[in-house]
Amino acid sequence: MLIDYSKNHINKKTLSLFKNLLTEININKKIKKFFDGRKINFTENRAVMHYLLRG
């Protein structure tokens, strides 16, 4: 993940809290599901594949 520090004031405590949140929600597993083409868009009941259309 990329954080643009030029437009956001993020200190070490905030960054630590953010990292803890990502761990808590198991972000690595969610990213893997995304790239595996698994169903993650539960509103439309389908996989998110629109990124494949980008060049």
UniProtKB/TrEMBL annotation:
Gene3D superfamilies: Glucose-6-phosphate isomerase like protein, domain 1. GO terms for molecular function: carbohydrate derivative binding; glucose-6-phosphate isomerase activity; monosaccharide binding. SUPFAM superfamilies: SIS domain. One of its GO terms (biological process) is glucose 6-phosphate metabolic process. GO terms for cellular component: cytosol. Keywords: Gluconeogenesis, Glycolysis, Isomerase. PANTHER family: GLUCOSE-6-PHOSPHATE ISOMERASE. This is Glucose-6-phosphate isomerase. It comes from marine metagenome. The lineage of its organism: unclassified sequences, metagenomes, ecological metagenomes.
